[in-house]
Design goal:
Distance between the termini: 30 Å
Shape: globular
Number of strands: 28
Largest sheet: 5 strands, antiparallel
Number of helices: 3
Structural class: mainly beta
Radius of gyration: 20 Å
Length: 372
């Protein structure tokens, strides 16, 4: 559990022969979780023998074995959530397996709603879990299958923006996206910046960051973003602009999906260090402060004003325990369990997270406050 998420956030799809041994979704991170679930194994075996009508049947000829929530985002009003949902479905006719991903709406209490956009799409060789909402909450940007889409949350209008590419990041103003068509194992992939506000979409620039270890670009503002690389000392992050220029590099830091955050109002960048603690870096002053140092952090999020953290522990003794942290004094409080990828609500009073307790990972929502 200590090293699983220190990898690319999207993984190559397993080959047909490997699929009989591996989970379909983010194999490296989740194989241990699915494998240790006796319920999942029993369901799969029963379906494979056509002796069980499984969880979430979609028709008389197929049944969903796993339905896994992969990333969650709050609407600005906090009236609802949206999330990526991945499914593994077994045919009752020939035991063939299909793998799909879709954008779904969820209630503010974490209840599953309906699929949005183009529906459930067959997964590509790589699968990005980046999910971005526009500031007004009207538009989502997401990779489904091998294409990147813009989906109108209100009327479900869907626009395919880029084909045959993985989505790495979206600027806060929704003007730019960064994508790649390189293999997830490529340490020097070509990244492409697109202006998706233009019609048609305009390619702005291509660049090749060296020694990439985490294929995710965390945007800071409309023109700068963070990329994670490695050197002989370990992980480091670099701040780039849309001209492909490195503005600053910070050692002993990484910014993977679900384990980094930017608080825009305080200009604080929260990163995971090489010891798997959490540091705060103010990008205006470059002052760096340790926030969590006595735990191994699996995933976390920060409130918009940077005063509150929610993190999931990676310690073997308390796997996926959920904590709230006061970033000003380091005080913490245990608020939940079996939690992964917490997402603090815009008002900072609730936290949604992926619930790890069941084979079909669902969404839970809890109240949260800043510990005294």
């Amino acid at each position: 559990m200590q090293n699983r998420t220190n990898l690319s956030f999207y993984s190559p799809r397993p080959t047909p022969s490997a699929r009989s041994k591996q989970s379909s979704f983010h194999v490296t991170r989740r194989l241990a979780e699915f494998a240790r679930s006796k319920i999942s194994i029993l369901l799969f075996l029963a379906l494979a023998s056509s002796a069980f009508v499984g969880l979430g049947c979609t028709s008389s000829t197929s049944a969903t074995v796993f339905m896994v929530v992969d990333n969650v985002a709050w609407l600005p009003s906090e009236s609802a959530l949206i999330a990526l949902v991945e499914k593994q479905t077994v045919s009752a006719l020939d035991n063939s397996i299909s793998y799909t991903v879709g954008l779904y709406n969820f209630g503010a209490d974490g209840s599953l709603g309906s699929v949005m956009g183009p529906g459930d799409v067959v997964e590509a060789y790589w699968n990005s879990a980046v999910l971005s909402l526009s500031n007004d909450g009207s538009t989502a940007y997401v990779q489904l299958g091998a294409s990147i889409y813009r989906v109108n949350i209100h009327d479900n209008t869907t626009t395919k923006l880029v084909q045959t590419a993985a989505l790495l990041g979206v600027s806060p103003d929704s003007k730019y996206i960064i994508s790649t068509d390189a293999s997830p194992t490529d340490r020097a992939p070509v990244y492409t910046i697109y202006d998706v506000s233009a019609n048609p979409v305009r390619r702005v620039r291509q660049f090749t960051p060296p020694n990439i270890i985490n294929n995710r670009c965390l945007w800071i503002d409309g023109g700068t973003f963070v990329v994670t690389s490695s050197d002989s000392a370990g992980s480091n992050i670099s701040v780039w602009d849309t001209n492909g220029t490195i503005l600053h590099t910070y050692p002993n830091a990484e910014a993977p999906l679900a384990a980094s955050a930017y608080a825009s109002s305080s200009h604080d960048l929260f990163v995971r260090n090489n010891s798997r603690g959490i540091d705060r870096i103010n990008i205006l002053t470059n002052v760096r402060t340790a926030v969590v140092s006595q735990d191994s952090v699996e995933s976390f999020d920060a409130s918009r004003d940077g005063t509150l953290l929610a993190y999931s522990s990676g310690k073997v003794a308390q796997p996926y325990a959920l904590f709230a942290v006061n970033t000003q004094n380091g005080h913490s409080a245990s608020i939940g369990s079996d939690a992964f990828q917490p997402m603090i609500s815009p008002n900072g009073d609730r936290v949604a997270f992926i619930h790890n307790a069941s084979p079909n990972r669902d969404v839970k929502v809890l109240g949260i406050s800043i510990p005294n």
